[in-house]
Amino acid sequence: MYTSYFGFKENPFSLTPDPDYLYFSRHHKEAFDHLVYGINERKGFIVITGGIGTGKTTLCRALLGTLDSSTKTALIFNAYISDTELLKTVNKEFGIGEGEPGQSKKDDIDSLNHFLLETFSRGGNAVLLIDEAQNLSHAVLEQIRMLSNLETEKEKLVQIVLAGQSELRELLTSPSLRQLDERIMVRYDLKPLDRRDVQAYVEHRLVVAGGKGNVRFKKGALEAIYAYSRGNPRRINGVCDRALLIAYSKDEFTISKKTAQRAIEDVRGHVARESRLGAGWAQKRVAPVSVLLLVFLITVAGLGGWSFRKEISALISGKATVTSVPPRHSASQADGGPSLVYQVETAEGNRTESLPSAPAEAEIKAASLFLDEGASLVGLFRLFNERQRLNSHDPEDVHLGLYSFLAAPEHYIMFRRPFRVRLSGPAQDSGLGHSMALPLSQYLLIREVTADGASAIDAAGKERRITRDFILADQGLEFSWV
Known about the structure:
Rossmann fold, 42% helix, 482 residues, five-stranded parallel beta sheet, six-stranded antiparallel beta sheet, 3 domains, Helicase, Ruva Protein, domain 3, alpha/beta
């Protein structure tokens, strides 16, 4: 709408990843240099991570534009694919073709290997670039690791670039992906723009869009934009686009601080207005994540969440641990046998809770993998807290919610965060090999998905490996995560 009014040939602050608009801040130049080095030196694996909207995709597109014709490239944006689909997609992107219908995985790999050897013999290189790699399943990542085995005695035939959000770093630390992680020779975590970069970034985009210098952002406007965006290019684009629209409606060519603040309010709504209530109010938000966790849990979990509010709050603040204690025996359990017991230790003292009793000793061992409502909630929020600390997320950017949804069991391999699944029928213990009848509202708590199954947390708080077949057995279809 405003492009012709300001003399632009196109929108200078479009959210599409156009490499022509890439601004080389210190961080972006370092990331670009890492990419070029890893490819030219045939390092095999290069990983670029960064927060949402920091410019990873734009950087990768710019990289592809600088490679010469002797370097063959394959670019994959859809990370929600299977290992078989990956091979066919890679071959298609390299121009090899998808092969004959019903062609085996071995045939696909052989075709790819032949192509890579031929490219290498001509003095060329091959680059496989996968964007949004944090969404790749463990099985696909393992297949990607196997592709790196396509090599000569001295050189890697294909250079694999994995670009993804910060969660990709966490994903690669999974024990089941240790072999892949150890092969990554080049890594870079892309940071947002520095404060001094914001003005240069904005002016760079105005010039590329065809601006003649008639549009100017005042110093106060740029300071307000940085305070909101924290240097995130996508956020900067969103606010600047809105600010230009406001200026257009007011027949102005100068973006003032007031205009920038109004643009921020339009983009964020009431959240922006709250952020201007003063530093004193902000400082009172000592632990926003902890408070919101507790409030939300009480809301969605009812009495179950309320019963464990102190434990969950303590877990989130890092002041509590969960341990197991020996089973109790009492006359009231004569008909059913001993109960499974877990204990939450806090600064205020210990709280001990029992899981429902099982009818036999063998079933006690099996039931230790299954949690009730309270234990699963405590465990799920504890895993969430660990994940937040590992990724060093800013509490201001965390939007909490306990999400429950229905899905087919086989879709679990796509999950990239801790989750729980509500069981709805007989469950077979992966270790005992027999089925047991579960009480109502029993849950399986999953820390992470692995290539051959998943890592579950049992009632004692310990990790137990479970197989894919175990998860796909007669289980419930209700999943939930934070």
